[in-house]
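As agreed, record copied across for absentees:
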Amino acid sequence: MDQEFLVVDYHIPLTDVSSLAMNRKQGNLYDLVLVTKYGQFYGIVSIRELIIKLSEIQISIARYANP
C-alpha cells in the first residue's frame, strides 16, 4: 500500500486541491484524494470527479462574466 497519499481539508478551495493533486509524482497523479473535515475522515474523491467539478465551476464563472 502506498504511504504517500494526499489528504486535504474539506474547506480548502477546489482550485488549491487540484493544484496539490497535479503536483504529485507521476505515478500518483490519479490516486484518490482523502478529504477530512474538522480533523476527521470525511470521504474520498477521484481526480476524475475533481476535474469535472472544477470544470463546472469554471463554466459557471465564465457564464456570468462580462458579456
User: Anything to note?
Assistant: The beta strands are 6-9, 33-37, 40-45. The longest strand covers residues 40-45. Residues 6 and 20 are 8 Å apart (CA to CA).
